[in-house]
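The instructor's notes for this session suggest beginning with a concrete chain rather than abstract definitions. Hand out the sequence below and ask the class to guess, before any prediction is shown, which regions might be ordered.
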Amino acid sequence: IKNELIAQLDFVERTIKHPVDGSYLDGYNLKWEAEPQQKRSLGTHLHLLEALMKSMEILDDTKYQSSIEKIIDILIHRFINIHKELVYHQLELSWKPVPNETWLGHNAEVAWIVKKAAHSIKNKEFIVPSKEILIALSNNKIERGFDNMYGGIFNRFKSGKWRWINSFGLFHHAIFSHHENKGTSKRIFFHQP
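After discussion, reveal the predicted structure:
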């Protein structure tokens, strides 16, 4: 199974990784030929980061560490906006953000995964910014997405609640508050009016 895992990861590295900037591109046809309107997506970078982290653990090898570090760098400096309050879902090849809605659940997920990855590879360059991002995105999620009338967290600002957003938000914020930053983030979650 390890050989298959390595073969799949090497395929991804060869096929969708940008040869100059190290980002990963979306937009290929069935033959893995680039389509005219390629973009960089949050989902590809985030879930590839998770896969590479797990692979590094399974393989007990640092072969993909530079790719992990590059993805963390791209997430911190390209997908998370300058104020660290929101996350972009797609970027043009020019790195210009594609207009998108804010998904508070994805914001929380990105913050948690980036922080976990930075700590896992023990890269001091990313540990401090990942903690700042976690705090900022967590506070933003609660301040802008918490339903003060009925409890829970909206997925998009005031537009509906989804189970996974509330489950992940509860888990993310509880762990964050307990282990990392007591007193630096609001701990309000679910309440009955």
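Then share the key points. Residues 151 and 190 are 5 Å apart (CA to CA). Helices lie at 2-15, 42-59, 65-79, 104-120, 124-145, 163-179.
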